[in-house]
Specification:
Elements (H helix, E strand, L loop, with lengths): L12 H14 L3 H8 L7 H10 L14 H16 L6 H11 L8 H11 L4
Helix pairs in contact: 1-3, 4-5
Length: 124
């Protein structure tokens, strides 16, 4: 008995949102959706909509998470405020400061900072 390999289909957030809108507009069955888009999205509709609210990158296929979301969020909030005031960006130092204030076992490195900039679409 021959088994067929199942191929993984990675969709961008924008493609997932398109499927959700088709689901809401046309109300197709799960089988029709799977056949048409080669993906089982119906089960995760709420998670997709929630991710779309906070994510500004519709072309990204993978969700990039930080090691410590609290430090990440605090640094981004500070960065937006500092940029509005034309303050110099001392990101690594501020990330380490927020980690100590939040009592987190965290050390900002050059690699972490590079990925943080990519996650937030920052080019300095």
């Amino acid at each position: 008995m021959a088994t067929s390999k199942r191929h993984r289909t990675d969709l961008t957030l924008g493609q997932k949102l398109e499927i959700v809108s088709v689901m809401e507009r046309e109300r197709p069955s799960q089988a029709e959706l799977t056949k048409r888009f080669k993906s089982k999205i119906a089960k995760s509709k709420d998670a997709i909509l929630k991710e779309a609210e906070k994510n500004k990158f519709a072309t990204r296929k993978q969700k990039r998470a930080s090691k410590d979301d609290d430090v990440d969020a605090a640094l981004y909030t500070w960065f937006v405020d500092a940029k509005a005031r034309d303050a110099p960006a001392i990101l690594e130092e501020k990330a380490n400061h927020f980690a100590s204030v939040l009592e987190k076992d965290f050390k900002a490195t050059n690699g972490w900072l590079c990925r943080w900039k990519t996650r937030h679409g920052i080019k300095i």
